[in-house]
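Training component of the fellowship. As part of building independent skills, the fellow (R.M.) carried out the full modelling exercise for a liganded target. The chosen ligand was magnesium ion. The inputs are recorded below so that the supervisory panel can assess the work.
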Amino acid sequence: MAENNVDNKKNVVKTRNFIHELVEKDISEGKNNGRVHTRFPPEPNGYLHIGHAKAICLDFGTAEKFGGKCNLRFDDTNPTKEDVEYVDSIKEDIKWLGFDWEDRLYYASDFFDKLYEFAEQLIKEGKAYVDDQPAELISQQRGTPTKPGIESPLRNRSVDENLDLFRRMKAGEFPNEAKVLRAKVDMTSPNMHMRDPLMYRISHAEHHRTGNKWCIYPMYDYAHGQCDYFEGVTHSLCTLEFEIHRPLYNWFVDQMATDDYRPRQIEFSRLNLTYTMMSKRKLLHLVEQGYVNGWNDPRMPTISGMRRRGFTPASIRNLVEKVGITKTEGMIDFAMLEHAVRDDLNKTAQRVMGVLNPLKVVITNYPEDKAEMVQAINNPENESAGRRDVPFTRELYIEREDFMEYPPRKFFRLSLGKEVRLRYAYYITCNEVIKNEAGEITELHCTYDPETRGGKSADGRKVKGTLHWVSATEGVKAEIRLYDRLFNVENPANEKGNDFTELLNPESLKVLQNCFVEPFVKSAKPLDHFQFERMGYFNVDKDTTPENLVINRTVTLRDNWAKQMNK
Ligand code: ATP
Ligand code: MG
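Fellow's submitted model of the complex:
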């Protein structure tokens, strides 16, 4: 059972979408003997983000829906950008989201030998050749979408010469970029990807799995389709930018001259979120230049950042479900994600009281050495969550903004001479405001009515305001980190010209050092969720030490952003 007792398997792309329809049709036509086998193919060159979560839910969810299987395959064809740190984080994130590849963990590098053999086969069949021209020239010769390409002068090398050169490339005889292996397809094809695409490049780089065995590495377009085929993948789901690669993907697999089955590539639109971006390259830049505190900074759109911030797997899956699977590109409002998070946490989060911006209250008619326990409800949405004891003492903290010396009409919280309810405890009345020399309010002197224990008056007297509070003597001090949008503009990836880091929101992180929470929170572990009554959803951060309780605000109770924007 996953955290928060959410059944992980219940809400995974259950809403029918066009991909399910295509899969159903394949099954009904008896294709692949009715098998459904998908894969999620990340490149281990960064941490997973919320966009990947969409692909994960779709890949694993589709397999699950049709009683099939889903592989995890690391697309590790580019050793200079890849790292085991990324491999490990990707596995952790997929598991956390609630999915399981069981024993089907693959790496494109598992197939390097097979891919190499197949490349030799293509050379022998006259379908691939070694080109010695510089990359720039090759690229120029490819033409443009409206102008056909021109053939390389080396295109018609003999099979023997190509085989010899390719084997010497593999043996390490040539430096990086000296030669490439190209597929001989069609330089006049309207699809640029078919104009003799690269299959192999030389890269004298150590690979995180194959070490120094190889100094030539397959290109993504050459490796991907074959890996799907080798793994038995029937439905290869990917984002729209690969649509134009599909003819090449099919071309390579067709050259295998087998007739057992063919993987089918189907494309869908990417998930994009407002006020953030999905480019791994740019996210890496933010990490490396210290604009954020690592890939798992709670402001990052990464799965690990969202986990640390307190977003739940169910809320992310629910968002993906709600967005649906289509071919239409669009932006998802960040507020929609926050809504999904609130929706899930509302059902599950332990309620406590916490004061972010404390103002001391002294109950002058309450004994100095007394502490009593009042009972508080753990979760009004779930009676079985029970109750807990909260210590009430003579000195308390309330939220500074819950008191006003000169209140406007309809201010129902505390002011001089007014009575309010302290949640679960007593009615109090404010009698005196204490200030320092600078004229700032430092303390309120109040009296409580002992006849209102539990927050109910015996005589039926009503108060309009109910405030949260924490005992000043029994409560626990905490550091609370408040997060806001990472960028100030809705679609930072779309802004031209400027350095994208200039678009960062300088107020995306605010740290409050002097907060107080009820003692209950002290026993909490990193990632534990809470609702601080009236204040939002919070969780314990991994930076917590026995001396310093560190708490993240996951999300406010309501959407404050629109309000702030109009201020
Ligand atoms: P790169 O530029 O490094 O290739 P990428 O975001 O495509 O970045 P991959 O590791 O190749 O990263 O992605 C793995 C899978 O996740 C691919 O199938 C890709 O189509 C899918 N994916 C990536 N970004 C999104 C997104 N924003 N929405 C939905 N799916 C995505
Ligand atoms: Mg990619």
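The panel noted the following from the submitted structure. Residues 43 surround magnesium ion (ligand 2) (CB under 6 Å). The domain at 351-474 is CATH 2.40.240.10 (Ribosomal Protein L25; Chain P).
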